[in-house]
Amino acid sequence: MANKVEVLARNMRLTDNTREYVEKKAAKLERYLQEIDEIRVELSFAKTARNANDRQVAEINVRGRGFLLRTEERADDMHAAFDAALDKMQRQIDRYKGKHYRGRGDGRSAAEVLEDEMPVDETGELLPMIARRKKFIVLPMTEEEAVEQMRLLGHDNFFIFFNPEQNSIQILYRRRNGTYGLIEPVVG
What we know:
Helix content is 29%, strand content 28%. It is of the alpha+beta class. A hairpin with a 5-residue loop joins strand 6 and strand 7. The longest helix has 23 residues, at 78-100.
């Protein structure tokens, strides 16, 4: 096998059965993308999680020449958390391959790209950097319509919209327990 699968455990004891399960399934990622150099899986128990169903955490980092992909999932069972993270990683690999084969990337590793792009001042400290700017049309809608749009579009983290009732731009986000939160910016 050309790549290396590394399994780490934090705040828990890693059994041989779990290690073998993770190594066997993670090694199959090479079928989806041959350029993988290293797969790092970190399994942890988060005793401070608000919800008991979110205490088992599986994080997968896949590194290769010119790319670094990362996923994290939580569940009440370690195998379920790892399987969910693995499914998410496969979707990320598919998305990466779509972008990669359209001509993106210059063959450099992710570390080389980051090293070149990070601005440093004369003291050697990193300067703050905006890596990407994005503009899009903000549509007027109610909070209920925003929740529905967020679900329909498959946005897992957040959704920005203009609330005409409040006459302001608001940010809807999904909380870990499955409920929604709303950020209402106020100019200070």
